[in-house]
Every structure is written in C-alpha cells, then in structure tokens.
Amino acid sequence: MKGKKIVRLLVVLVVLVGVFLVVKYTGNTGRSKTFRSSLVEIDTAKVSKLEILSPGDTTVLTRESGEWKVNQLKKADKNTVKALMNNLKQIKPSRLASRTEDSWKDFQVDDAGTRVIAYEGSDKVLDIILGRFNVEGQRSFYSYVRLNEEADVYVAKDFMKMSVGTGSADYRNDDVVRLVKDSVSSIAFNYSDSAFTLDKVDGKWQLGEMAADSASVVKYLQSLTFVNSKNFAERSGAPVLYDLVIGLNGGNDIQVTAYGNDQFSSSYNEDEYWQDSAVTDKIFKGKSYFLGE
Prior knowledge:
The chain is α+β, with helices and mostly antiparallel strands. The protein has helices at 2-26, 31-34, 78-89, 104-107, 214-223, 277-283; strands spanning 49-54, 57-64, 67-70, 74-75, 93-98, 114-120, 123-136, 140-147, 153-157, 175-178, 184-190, 195-201, 204-207, 210-211, 226-228, 232-233, 240-248, 254-259, 263-266, 269-275. The strands form three sheets. Strands 4-3-2-1-6-7-8-9-5 form a nine-stranded antiparallel β-sheet. The protein is elongated.
C-alpha cells in the first residue's frame, strides 16, 4: 500500500510539473503576458523610410541626406513627416478588442485599413494597420489598430486615424507664398495687356502717381501671408501668361508665374507646380482692386 501511495504522489508531481512547464513556456499566464502595453516603439531620428498603404494610394517617404522625399521624386514637407511619426507614437493600446481574424473586417484592420511600415535602414521597425475610427460621448474617441503580423486587435484611445495622411499630396510641400505683410515693399504686376506696381512710400501705398486704397492693400497682403494648395500638377509646357514679383525688405523677392491651363509656379517653392484657379484668383488682382473700385 505504501508503495502505491508513493507512485500516486509521483504521478501527481509529474502532472503538476508538466502543467507548470506548459504555462511557463506557452506564455499563457493572463493579461500581463499577452496584452501589449506598447505597439509603436520607433526612434524618429533613425527612421529612414515610411510606407503608407491605403486602398486608394501608396506613398513612400524616404530620408536622403537629411531631407525627406515623396515617392523619391518630390520634396516632402519635413514638418508633416515629423507630425506623422509623432502621431504614430501616440498610439497607446487601452484594451483588446478581439483576438481572432474573423473580426478584422468589422474593425477595418484588414485590406480596408491604412497600413504604415517604418524602416531603419533595411530593418523593419514597425508594421501596423490603422482601422476604424469611433467617437464615444462628446469628447472621447479611439481607433482600432493591429500589428500586421499578429491577430490581436487593440483599441487605441485618443488616437485619430485621420491624423495619418493616406495620399502623396498630404506629404508634399504645398507652400505657394509665405510672408510677413509688413516686410513687403512693393508688388509688380506684369500682365500681357498692362503692368502696374504698388510701392510703399513713407509708410503709404502708392499706385503709380495715385494713392492706393489702404484697406484693399491691407486685405490683399493679409491674404498672402500664407497661401498653400494641394492641387499639384505636372508642368504641361503651357506658355507664360503673366506674373507678379513681391519685393521684400531683408529677403529674396517672390515671383509667382501664371501659365495656360490655370497652372502656376512660385519661386518660394521651386519644386512644385499647381493647377488651382482659386489661388490664382487670390494672388492676381487688377488695378481697380487697389483703388477700391
């Protein structure tokens, strides 16, 4: 009888040891071992390439000699790229939404989501899919996210999926004109049928021999402090129609040139061309405008 008891105790001990080993080496010890406390761990100073893949567009951002390029062709807005990486670092998992692939479509963390891949050299340091955005109450919001190589879907509280642009135009430098209105000393309008110049003389604006309408000039200059457009275009070879030159105190002049097909360019941002009639209407005014007529 004593021998049988010893055998039973040994069997129980072996079973307990087996259970311990299974639990230890499968990692199935509850939330502390399976719930990721962090999803995005990137060093923004080391990231050399970002890929943003959405159902309608693929954008590749590459860092070359300290400058960011969009699809290796156009200069990127470095502040926008920096904002993208900072937004990604704001992704903090608050809870698990699902652990199965069956839920991916509902949470839009499948092919319908926005996939962002980050590299340091040839090493992939992030591969995440940004899914459906939801609002909870009046001030709370969250997005569903999933690491591409894992099944788990997380809720990222206070993260807005829309903060990550999905098209190449979102990352290109869209500045047409930027200036401080008080630094403008003159504006020369050169049209095909006429030409005139606004000059600041002793603090007052003159249009040739006539006094310009100060309210109109101030309104115009305020509209030029920050002009941008995402309606990018490729240079079509259309002829030059007219231009203007903004003279600046203590800075380089800015020339905006209009071409056929509503295209235009700006010396402020020499890498881009645009096709945007709303911008050309804002920049190019007739003489009567500055006389308050």
